[in-house]
Structure formats: structure tokens, C-alpha cells
Design brief:
Structural class: alpha/beta
Largest sheet: 4 strands, parallel
Radius of gyration: 16 Å
Helix content: 40-55%
Length: about 170
């Protein structure tokens, strides 16, 4: 812990649920069909899996995808536990509007991890290993690009130039 901040000690492999993405980006399920969507970095988010069920051509990209789905599932479970332990120490610093408790947050993160792991095992072509700030896609390959919170999380480890180049890409 450093003061009253959440200290995660490392970049964690966790993700948000499809429903969180809909709320976060003000998306409606019906507007996803037929669209090409990039989730980057996607981590253990379940967006790509669920968006495909609704007819979207969604691609998840992340440096973590150089590892197997099983190895990332194991890392994700450990990272969720680590995050919950750290969050328990500073939970009074957060507004618990999206989740009613740390336990509810843990359940959502675990559900997202399970859905993304299963989809990656069954549809690996949707999950592209990348190393930001460079992406292996042609310009304008996607109708929409989503990035949950990565660019706001690791300012202490990834410098301004990295963030700028990532946004430009």
C-alpha cells in the first residue's frame, strides 16, 4: 500500500463483463450487429465473446495473449484475488455504485475471466497478441475501438509518450 491508493504491484490480468462495457460506453446490444469492433487492450474482458453472439465482428487484442488461455486463466484468478485483497484495505475510498460490495466485484471479474477464457479456447482467432503502441491492423479496420481503463491505470509504469503513441495508433 502507498498511502490510501490502490497498489496492485503489477499489471494484472482482469477484465470487465459485457454488461459493464455496455454501461461504460453507453452501447445498446442492438447497435453492435454487423459492426467491426476492436477491444484493446482487452485483458480478460468478456465483451468480444458476447458481442459475437449479437452479430458483431469483435476482436480482442492484448500483449497477454502471447500466453495460453489456460495460463492466463490461472494468472487471472490469482490477480483477482490479489486485487480483492488490496481493495479490501482501501474500500472506503471508492464509491460503490456499480457494485454493492467487494464480493460482487470479485464475482463479476471472475465471470468475465471465465467467459473470455472459454471463448479464447473455442475461437482463438478472435484474440490477437499485440504489443502496444503498435497494432497489426490496417488503418480504419474497425468501426469502433474500445479500451476499458488501461490508459488510466498505469501512469506510474507507462510514460506519457507510450500513452500518446497508443492513442494515436
Amino acid at each position: 500500500m502507498s498511502g490510501n491508493k490502490l497498489d496492485l504491484e503489477r499489471i494484472v490480468f482482469i477484465g470487465r463483463t459485457f454488461e459493464e462495457y455496455l454501461r461504460m460506453f453507453n452501447l445498446q446490444p442492438g447497435e453492435l450487429a454487423g459492426r467491426s469492433i476492436l477491444d484493446c487492450p482487452a485483458g480478460a474482458c468478456s465483451f468480444t465473446s458476447e458481442a459475437h453472439k449479437l452479430g458483431a465482428a469483435s476482436v480482442a487484442a492484448d500483449i497477454a495473449y502471447y500466453y495460453s488461455a489456460e495460463a492466463l486463466r490461472d494468472k487471472g484468478l490469482k490477480d483477482i484475488e490479489h486485487t480483492v485483497q488490496q481493495l479490501d484495505k482501501v474500500q472506503d475510498n471508492f464509491v460503490w455504485k456499480e457494485f454493492t460490495s467487494i464480493h460482487a466485484l470479485q464475482q463479476a471479474r471472475t465471470a468475465a475471466l471465465a467467459a473470455s477464457t472459454l471463448d479464447r479456447q473455442q475461437n482463438s482467432r478472435r484474440y490477437i497478441p499485440v504489443e502496444l503502441p503498435l497494432l497489426p491492423f490496417a488503418d480504419r479496420s474497425f468501426d469502433l475501438t474500445l479500451s476499458a481503463h488501461f490508459l488510466f491505470m498505469y501512469g506510474d509504469r507507462l510514460d506519457y509518450d507510450f500513452h500518446l503513441r497508443t492513442l494515436q495508433e
